[in-house]
Amino acid sequence: MDKLRKVGGMAAITEACIYILLFTYFAAYHNYPAGAGVAEKLSYLKDHRLVISVMYLIGYVGFGIALAVLVLAVHDQIRQRSPVLSRLSAIFGILWVGLVIAAGMLADASLAAAVGLASKDSERAFSIYSTISVVVEGIGGGNEIVGGLWVLLVSIAAIGGAFSRPLSYFGILVGVAGVATIVPGEWIKQIFGLSQILWFAWLGVSLLRNR
């Protein structure tokens, strides 16, 4: 439907904006003392709890909600030309939505637990935060295989005419980069994240302008 396509376009642009916001915050403002002791780390988390919680809410939960809308809109665009790939991509898209939102809820819960226990048992507080952070990293940030597969499958399916060929081919490259994040290396995740900003923005404009 035309309305769903336009809403999906706005959701895609929202995703790009969320990526830019997170990159800006963590690159320019977030100064977590990774090399300091437990007390200094907990003190930083306590002092910056509000802004970190907001970033978790926007970067995970907000991203997941917008992604759910986008997955539905993209599926509607490609399902007639590529019925099998559209269903398969939707499965990975929905799974990605669940993982992202779950990661955000866990991250915020671990932050609240760490700050709440900091004055009573700092070692236990930091242990809880560190342990849950590993889980969050595993399902929502450490690798982007599920998200990469969604982008890859959507882009392959869209070559048939749902989107422009340049956008589809670029999406394939972005998807491959996402799958490649299974290989250790921060630079791979950065390539996927930065290229996905462009892909989301390009996809959003395409959905808004496509007739």
Quick take:
Helix content is 82%, strand content 0%. The protein is an all-alpha fold and 211 residues long.
What does this structure look like?
By secondary structure, the protein is mostly helical. The chain has helices at 2-28, 38-47, 49-78, 83-117, 122-140, 145-158, 165-179, 186-209. Helix 1 (2-28) runs antiparallel to helix 8. The longest helix has 35 residues, at 83-117. The protein is elongated, with a radius of gyration of 19 Å. It starts with a helix and ends with a helix.
List strands and helices in order, with pairings:
Layout (H helix, E strand, L loop, with lengths): L1 H27 L9 H10 L1 H30 L4 H35 L4 H19 L4 H14 L6 H15 L6 H24 L2
